[in-house]
Specification:
Oligomer: heterodimer
Largest sheet of chain A: 8 strands, mixed
Shape of chain A: globular
Strand content of chain A: 25-35%
Number of domains of chain A: 2
Structural class of chain A: alpha+beta
Strand order of the largest sheet of chain A: 6-5-4-1-8-13-14-15
Distance between the termini of chain B: 11 Å
Strand order of the largest sheet of chain B: 6-5-4-1-7-12-13-14
Chain lengths: 499, 492
C-alpha cells in the first residue's frame, strides 16, 4: 500500500550552481537573523563542575520498594555531580544555574529547602532557586524521610542522619562547582541508545499492568512508546578540553532495584566507561527523561537479550553503560566541531499550580477495602500507608484542588532544558519535544521534588500501578497543563525582543 | 535402552544435522526509465539513486545423504510482493531446481517506495509513457532472480550459522494521535492537539550470519521493524538497505550476500518525528543524508552483533521449514463504508478530466465495494495467506504477507519458545493484496471517508484483515512456532 512519503527533507544541500538571486536571498537571511535579537542575548559563559561521593559509611535503609531493605554492603559508590553555569556580559551576571544530578530515588521534601538555605548562606551571589536538582531514580540509595519504613534503630544510619549528611555533601559539591567556574563553551548533540523499555503491558480485557506478563494469550501489546534519543550537552573549558557532559536518557536507573546493597545502578557503569574511554576526569550529569512508564527491564524476548549479555560477558548495567558511553563518545567528537562560547543563556523557574487528580468515591471505597485486607494479613510494608494517603486526599481535595510544582526551563544556545518533578509518562515528553521551538529539547523529570507518577489518559483507562489514583497526585488533565505551560515557557525564551 | 529413550524424550523436535548454505545476488535494477510504485500516482524514474538487488539464501539441512529440510529465501528491493508475483516466479523456476520443493521458496520485499511497478494495472497504463512497463520488467526481473536462485542452490556447501540480537533506532511509529481521538499517519506533532504517538516501536536488529566451512562470512540476514522509506524521491533506490550493504561490504567483503528483511512494521517508518530538527542537524554534522545515517546505524548494529556471535558459530544446527496455507477472518465491510466507497467510485467514473491519482483511488475504494457485495452474498469471509515458519537452531523465523502493525510482532516474539524470533513481513504473495493489519486502537482512530488519508492504514479500504484476523494470525503463528519446539513423539 502506498505510504505517501513526502520525500527526504534531510538531504545535503545541492552542489548545483547558485544563482545571484539565491545568494542575495541568503544574505538577506543572514541579516534577518542578525537583527532578530533573541530574548536571551548571547553572553560569555562561565562553567565549573564537581563531583562528590555520597556513599554512607554505615548501613542505611534503601528507598524505592514497598518493603524495608537495609543495605548489606556497597556495590559501587553513589555520587552527586554539579555543573555551574553563569552567563556574563562584562562584569554583569546575566543568568545562572547549578545543575545537580544525584544518585537518589527522588528528592523528598527533607532535602531541597534546607539545601537551598545552605547555598543561600554560602553563595550570596547565587540565587538558590536556580538550583536544578535531579534524582537519577536509583532504587538502591538512601531513604531520606523518617516514618516511611520500619528501620531498626541500632546499627543503621537513620534517614534524618543521612539526610543531614546528604545536604552537607550536596551543598559542598554545588559550592565547589560554582567557585570553580571559568570561561568555557558548550556544544550539544543527539545520539541513540536503546536503554529504556515501556513497562506497561496491555491485555485483551483493556487492563494494563506494570511489568505484566507478555508470554500470555491475553497479552495485546505494550501500552506506550519509548524515545531512544540520547540528548547530550557538553561543557568545555577555554582550551576545548571536555569538562562535563549532561546525558538525558529516557530511562530511570533501576535495573538492580530490588537489591539490598548501595548501588548507583547503570549510571555507575556509564561514568566508569566514559572515564575509561573518553575523559578520565569527566563530570557526568545523569538526567532521566520523561520515563514514568519506562524502565531498563525487558518486557519480551528476554532470552535473546540475556544470551547476548552472556556472550558479551557483561551484566545488564554494564551493557547499558556500554550502549550509552559508546554513543556519547561518538557524538562528542561531532559536538567538538561546534563548541560555542557566546550563546544565549536564560533560566526561568516557575511554580506551576496543576489541577490534582481527584479521588472518586469508588476509589476511596476500594482503598479502604485494601487497608482492611492488609491489616488482616499483618502487612508491615508501606502499602497500607499508600492506600491511606488516598483516603486522606479525598477528605481534603476540595480545599486543595491544585498541586504546585517547581519547573525549570533553560535556554542554552539552540537547546532547551525543561524539568518537572514527576515520573512523567513518555507521551508528555514527546509532546514537549515536538512542540518546542528549540532545535533540541532535553526533558528532565524527577527534578525539584517528587510529584509521583503522571500518567496518560490511556494509562488511567488501563489502570495498574503508576496509573491508579494512589500513584498520582496529578492526572492527565494536569499533565496537559504541564505540557502547555512548559511549551509556552520555552517559546518565551525563543521570542525575538522588541527594541 | 533407558538412556536412549531418555535422550529421545529430551531431544528437540529437530535433531542436529549438517547445514548446507548457498548465497547469490541478482541486480534487478532496470536499464531503462521505469514507473515507480508506492504513491497514489505513478512517478517515472529516469535516474538511479542506488541499485536494486535481490539477495538469495539457500539452506539445506542434511543427515548424511538424507535431506532433512530446505529453504530458499529471497530478499527483494521491491515495495511489495504483489498478487501473483511469487507464484509466477515459482513457475518460472519450474524444472530448474531438481530436488528442491518450490513451495519452500519465499520472496520478501524491503518496501522501498522507489522500486518499479510490478502490477500492470496498478496505475493507468497511459501514465507509463515510454518507460519500461511492468509486463516487461517482471519477466526480466524473474530471469535475473532465477539465475541467482539457481546459483545459490547449486553452490551450496557445508557451512555454519550464528545468530544474535542488536539494537538500532531505525524506525519510528508513524501514527500520531490527537486530543479528539483521531489518528493520522505522518500527522503534525508540533500542534497543541497532539497527544502522542499511537503505538510502540521495536528497535531490535535480528542478525543471522552464515559462514562457509572455514568460518568465513558468506551471507547475512538482518530483520528489523522498519520499512525501506528513509529517502523517498523519484529515482530508483534501494533506500537504506543500499547503505547497509555498502558498509557491510566495506567491513566484511564484497562477496557477503546481505538479505534485508522487514519485521512487522505496518505502523513504522524510518522518518524522524519528535527529534526531527536535531536529527537533521546531526546528519549535517556527520555529512550524511538521512538515508545514509539509517544505513550507518543498522550496519553498526550488525557489525557489533557479528563480532559477538562469532564466539557461538554452530555447524550442527537443525533446519525445519513448514509452509502453511492459513485462513484468517476477513475484515467485514459495513454498510456505511460501502456507501462511502461506492460514492467515490462513481465520482471517479464520471469525472471528465482524469486525475493522475484516479487509477489508484478507483482501485482503493473499488475493492471495498467488491468486498462488501461479496460479503453480502456470503463470500470473502476469509483471507487466505501462505505462512512460512522455520526453525534454525534456537531461532524461529516466521513470515506473513502483510504490513503488520508492530504490536502483533511483539506478541509473537513474546509468546515464542525460541531463544530468538526473527519475523518477516511483506513475504510471499497470494491471489489478493495483503495491505495493512491494524490494531484496535488504530481502527478507533477514524472511519473510512472520501479522503483516503483519513486514518490511513487503519480503515477498511486499507485492511484485508482487521484486529480479529490479526489475532488469529498471531495465535496461529505462535502455535506453528511452538510446534517446532515440541519434543519428538515417544519411540517404541
Amino acid at each position: 500500500m502506498p505510504c505517501f512519503s513526502k520525500g527526504n527533507t534531510m538531504r545535503r544541500p545541492s552542489k548545483s550552481f547558485r544563482s545571484k538571486r539565491t545568494i542575495l536571498s541568503e544574505i538577506a537571511g543572514v541579516i534577518a537573523v542578525a537583527l532578530a535579537v533573541i530574548n536571551a542575548p548571547a553572553a560569555e559563559l562561565r562553567i565549573g563542575a564537581a563531583t562528590i561521593n555520597i556513599t554512607p559509611d554505615k548501613p542505611i535503609a534503601l528507598a524505592g520498594q514497598f518493603n524495608t531493605r537495609i543495605s548489606r554492603g556497597v556495590d559501587n559508590p553513589i555520587t552527586a555531580t554539579a555543573v555551574a553555569i553563569e552567563a556574563r556580559e562584562g562584569e554583569r551576571s546575566v543568568d545562572q544555574a547549578i545543575l545537580l544530578s544525584t544518585d537518589i530515588v527522588v528528592f523528598f521534601p527533607a532535602i531541597p529547602q534546607p539545601l537551598r538555605e545552605r547555598l543561600r548562606a554560602k553563595l550570596p551571589e547565587f540565587d538558590p532557586r536556580k538550583l536544578v536538582m535531579t534524582a537519577t531514580h536509583t532504587h538502591t540509595s538512601a531513604v531520606t524521610e523518617e516514618g516511611t519504613y520500619n528501620i531498626p534503630k541500632d546499627g543503621v544510619m537513620q534517614p534524618r542522619e543521612y539526610a543531614a549528611f546528604l545536604i552537607e555533601r550536596l551543598a559542598e559539591v554545588c559550592v565547589r562547582a560554582w567557585q570553580q567556574r571559568k570561561p568555557g563553551g558548550v556544544s550539544w548533540g543527539l545520539g541513540h541508545a536503546v536503554v529504556g523499555n515501556n513497562r506497561r503491558a496491555t491485555y485483551a480485557d483493556g487492563t494494563a499492568k506494570m511489568y505484566g506478563v507478555t508470554n500470555d494469550l491475553k497479552f495485546r501489546g505494550i501500552e506506550g512508546g519509548e524515545d531512544h534519543g540520547l540528548e547530550m550537552l557538553f561543557f568545555w573549558d577555554k582550551q576545548k578540553k571536555l569538562l562535563a557532559a549532561g546525558i538525558n536518557v529516557e530511562c530511570p536507573s533501576q535495573e538492580v532495584e530490588s537489591r539490598s546493597t548501595v548501588n548507583a545502578d547503570f549510571w555507575h557503569d556509564v561514568r566508569e566507561q566514559l572515564h575509561a574511554g573518553l575523559a578520565k576526569d569527566l563530570f557526568v550529569l545523569g538526567w532521566p527523561g520523561a520515563c514514568g512508564d519506562i524502565s531498563p527491564h525487558r518486557m519480551y524476548r528476554k532470552a535473546a537479550e540475556e544470551r547476548m549479555l552472556k556472550l558479551r560477558g557483561l551484566t545488564c548495567t554494564q551493557d547499558i553503560g556500554r550502549r550509552i558511553s559508546r554513543e556519547v563518545t561518538d557524538v562528542c567528537e561531532l559536538a567538538r566541531r561546534d563548541i560555542r562560547a557566546d550563546v544565549p543563556f536564560a533560566h526561568e523557574v516557575a511554580d506551576l499550580a496543576l489541577p490534582v487528580r481527584k479521588v472518586t468515591e469508588r476509589e476511596v471505597a476500594e482503598a479502604q477495602k485494601e487497608i482492611e485486607v492488609l491489616k488482616k494479613k499483618g502487612d508491615k510494608s508501606r502499602r497500607s500507608a499508600w492506600f491511606q494517603a488516598t483516603v486522606d486526599r479525598y477528605r481534603t481535595q476540595d480545599k486543595e484542588p491544585t498541586f504546585t510544582v517547581e519547573v525549570h526551563v533553560l535556554r542554552i544556545g539552540d537547546i532547551a532544558i525543561a524539568t518537572n518533578p514527576f515520573e512523567l509518562f513518555h507521551d508528555y515528553g514527546a509532546q514537549m519535544k515536538a512542540r518546542s521551538k528549540a532545535e533540541q529539547t532535553f526533558v528532565i523529570e524527577l527534578t525539584g521534588g517528587w510529584g509521583r507518577y503522571l500518567p496518560t489518559a490511556r494509562a488511567v483507562a488501563g489502570g495498574g500501578y503508576s496509573a491508579v489514583v494512589q500513584s498520582n497526585m496529578v492526572g492527565p488533565e494536569g499533565g496537559q497543563v504541564l505540557v502547555d505551560r512548559t511549551v509556552e515557557m520555552i517559546g518565551e525564551l525563543w521570542k525575538p525582543t522588541t527594541k | 535402552m533407558v538412556l536412549a529413550l531418555a535422550l529421545a524424550f529430551s531431544s528437540v523436535g529437530a535433531s542436529a544435522a549438517e547445514l548446507w548454505i548457498g548465497a547469490a545476488t541478482a541486480d534487478i535494477t532496470p536499464d531503462r526509465p521505469v514507473p515507480l510504485t508506492g504513491n497514489t500516482s505513478v512517478r517515472i524514474a529516469r535516474e538511479i539513486q542506488s541499485r536494486l538487488t535481490a539477495n538469495v539464501l539457500a539452506l539445506e539441512s542434511r543427515e548424511g545423504e538424507r535431506v532433512v529440510d530446505q529453504a530458499i529465501m529471497v530478499s527483494c528491493d521491491l515495495c511489495v510482493i504483489r498478487p501473483g508475483i511469487q507464484e509466477g516466479f515459482r513457475k518460472h523456476l519450474a524444472g530448474r531446481l531438481p530436488g528442491f520443493d518450490l513451495n519452500k521458496l519465499l520472496l520478501a520485499a524491503t518496501h522501498t517506495h522507489a522500486a518499479p511497478v510490478i502490477l500492470q494495472n496498478r496505475y493507468d497504463e497511459k501514465d507509463y509513457g515510454d518507460a519500461m512497463q511492468p509486463k516487461e520488467y517482471v519477466p526480466w526481473m524473474y530471469q535475473r532472480m532465477a539465475e541467482a536462485v539457481v546459483k545459490a542452490w547449486k553452490s551450496r556447501e557445508k557451512g555454519a550459522v550464528a545468530w544474535g540480537l542488536g539494537h538500532a533506532v531505525a524506525g519510528h511509529n508513524r501514527r500520531v494521535v490527537y486530543s479528539d481521538g483521531t489518528a493520522k499517519m505522518y500527522g503534525a506533532m508540533n500542534i497543541p492537539e497532539f497527544r502522542g504517538v499511537e503505538g510502540y516501536e521495536d528497535h531490535g536488529v535480528h542478525v543471522l550470519c552464515f559462514y562457509d566451512s572455514q568460518k568465513r562470512l558468506k551471507a547475512a540476514a538482518i530483520s528489523l521493524a522498519t520499512t525501506a522509506q528513509a529517502a523517498g524521491g523519484n529515482k530508483v533506490s534501494a533506500d537504506f538497505w543500499h547503505d547497509v550493504r555498502r558498509l557491510i561490504h566495506e567491513q566484511h567483503g564484497e562477496s557477503v550476500c546481505v538479505l534485508g528483511f522487514c519485521a512487522p512494521a505496518g505502523d513504522q517508518t524510518p522518518r524522524a518525528h519528535v527529534n526531527k530538527k536535531s536529527e537533521e542537524r546531526m546528519c549535517k554534522l556527520r555529512d550524511l543524508t538521512y538515508c545514509e545515517e539509517i544505513g550507518r546505524r543498522v550496519a553498526g548494529a550488525f557489525d557489533d552483533v557479528a563480532g559477538v556471535i562469532a564466539k557461538d558459530i554452530r555447524a550442527d544446527v537443525s533446519l525445519i521449514h513448514r509452509v502453511r496455507q492459513v485462513e484468517l477472518p476477513a475484515r467485514v465491510i459495513t454498510e456505511a463504508e460501502y456507501a462511502v466507497a461506492k460514492k467515490v467510485c462513481e465520482e471517479v467514473d464520471v469525472r471528465k478530466k482524469r486525475l493522475k491519482t484516479d487509477a489508484w483511488t478507483r482501485h482503493f475504494y473499488g475493492l471495498v465495494v467488491e468486498r462488501y457485495l461479496a460479503q453480502q452474498k456470503g463470500g470473502w469471509k476469509t483471507y487466505a495467506m501462505e505462512m512460512h515458519v522455520l526453525r534454525l537452531g534456537d531461532v524461529a523465523i516466521a513470515t506473513n504477507p502483510f504490513e503488520l502493525f508492530v504490536d502483533y510482532g511483539v506478541q509473537i516474539q513474546a509468546r515464542s519458545p525460541a531463544v530468538q524470533t526473527f519475523l518477516i513481513q511483506l513475504a510471499t504473495s497470494g491471489p489478493r493484496p495483503a495491505y495493512y493489519v491494524p490494531t484496535p486502537r488504530a481502527v478507533a482512530g477514524g472511519a473510512l471517508n472520501a479522503n483516503p488519508f483519513t486514518n490511513y492504514s487503519a480503515t477498511a479500504a486499507a485492511n484485508m484483515i482487521g484486529p480479529e484476523g490479526a489475532q488469529v494470525l498471531v495465535d496461529r503463528t505462535a502455535e506453528a512456532i511452538n510446534g517446532l519446539w515440541k519434543p519428538p513423539a515417544k519411540q517404541n
